[in-house]
Design brief:
The chain is α+β, with helices and mostly antiparallel strands. Helices cover about 25% and strands about 30% of the residues. It has a single domain, classed as YbaK protein. The strands form 3 sheets. The protein has a 6-stranded mixed beta sheet with strand order 9-6-3-2-5-11. Strand 2 and strand 3 form a beta hairpin.
Length: about 170
């Protein structure tokens, strides 16, 4: 979704927000530095598959998604990171990896880590690698309706394992 459509959606829903333009950056930590936002206050959208269906997991930039915990929160039997090829076409007009956490506009469930939900403000990519939107978390929750739970982790998955399955 290009930033114009996202802004129109927010305006239609009477949501106050600010748009910041920064130099092109691809990682959440680079974006946080360029936009002068602390890494824990910048939310990144991680595309995952829960029981084979796409979902968005939103965590602070400095963290990763604990797939096992997300799977439990979602009541799923299987969780995996989605590849770019699996979601690229679902977000027309968005640069790959820069989609805003508005899965509700694409019929994709959104899961937000509790640490993001506890912040007064949320900042996230606005569909490109050079634009950032900031808005109140309460407004975000109102227009997106995410499910909230604790699923962030500081450590990368051991030995490159990216897949989680429920025990039988």
């Amino acid at each position: 979704m290009p930033v114009k459509l996202l802004k129109e959606y927010l305006d239609r829903n009477h949501v106050k927000y600010s748009l910041t333009t920064h130099s092109t950056a691809y990682t959440a930590q680079e974006i946080a530095a360029l936009a002068h936002v602390k890494g824990r206050h910048l939310a990144k959208t991680v595309m995952v598959k829960l029981d084979g269906s796409l979902a968005m997991a939103v965590v602070p930039a400095a963290y990763q998604v604990d797939l096992a915990r997300l799977m439990d929160i979602a009541g799923a039997h299987e969780a995996d990171l989605a590849s770019e090829n699996e979601f690229r076409t679902r977000f027309p007009g968005c640069e790959t990896g820069a989609m805003p956490p508005f899965g509700n506009l694409f019929d994709i469930p959104v899961y937000v880590d509790t640490s993001v939900a506890q912040d007064e403000e949320i900042a996230f990519n606005a569909g490109s690698h050079h634009e950032l939107i900031r808005m109140g978390y309460a407004d975000f929750a109102c227009v997106v309706g995410p499910e909230v739970g604790s699923f962030r982790t500081e450590k990368a998955c051991a030995h490159g394992v990216r897949h989680a399955m429920a025990s039988a």
